[in-house]
Amino acid sequence: MNIVVQKFGGTSVRNLECQRQVMQKVLRSHREGNKVIVVLSAMSGETNRLLALADEWSDTPDAAEVDSMVSTGEQVSCALFAMLLKKQGIHCRSVLGFQAPIRTDSAFGKARITDINTRHLLEMLEEYDILVMAGFQGADENNRITTLGRGGSDTSAVALAAAVDADVCEIYTDVPGVFTTDPNMCDDARKIERIAYDEMLEMASMGAKVLQIRSVEFAKKYNVTVHVRSTFSDELGTIVTQEDETMESVLVSGIAYDKDQAQITLVHVQDKPGVSAQIFSPLAEKKILVDMIVQNPSKDGKTDMTFTVPRADVEQTIKTLEALQYEIGFEKLTSNLNVSKISIIGVGMRNHSGVASLAFQALADENINILMISTSEIKVTCLIDDKYTELAVRTLHKAFHLEEAETIDQS
Ligand code: ASP
Ligand code: MG
User: pTM of this prediction?
Assistant: First the structure.
């Protein structure tokens, strides 16, 4: 049995006309002899509308009831789409999370999939030609409805593809694929044909607009090939897959940015064992994601400690640390909200040097000051003044010739 998973996002199912277009894609795959699992999101805007209702009804809406309610968005689009297919004489049915079932933990609003009943799915696929399955939802061990976090239908699709060992997991969306950088910032941005899971994960802040990050982690873990492509054209999109040699021969794959960061500095921290733990453990307890960390060389037993946190967590970070000022022993805390993070990403960096220096030179030529630097095996990140974000993105895109599909000269 050839099984294909096709997931369509909110804009693709937003009205009858769009659903008819979606149906053409699904029918084509069916005619090619595949059993199709169609995974749908709620119609665009619907999830927000429902969540706003919960907030109107209660300041502290019960998380389980929120999930029970917000999951109806997907229920509606699936039932409507199944009606369309049935009118074409297709033997199909809608399947909700608890009917599959897609088992999750009980973390309402951000549940994780723990198990999918493959046997039941395969039985249903024997009986029906097409299953129209609700994305974003599952059920916990008490059969309470759960949801997987915003954008969670992507993860549903990848998980289902892994469960039935599908040939491919196609994620249809309103953009043609994953780009070398944000096309709204840089006219030269180019669609990437193939990207490695790790690169896609590093593109997080940008790529997240295309795929839920968790779906990429899932795809990597279960080795599911994901094809991100447009609902509204027949063009091939971007294949997200395992790293291979051709990918490694590309030095840099993309430039990502994140304007949602803030820089915090603790001035004159005592430089003694345990200080970092004293600073970062309380932040970790509050689930604040600390990213870049730089500790300056110490002078007279004191050092400055600088790091970044998401902008939304700045107040809590400051409050938490100032409450511990005496214990940690720092002189003062300063914060800077006008920063952005620019990252140069590529698995080719594993085997090639010189990326960082080329990036620094390109930024220097534009007089852009670098506030902090961090690197990993496949990424170089610079923190800069956020007013230069666009200039930096364009400059780096150009410096690495990302407008053309370039490979490293191996000679
Ligand atoms: N409908 C959900 C959301 O808007 C899930 C999804 O679309 O992936 O976040
Ligand atoms: Mg989405």
Answer: 0.89
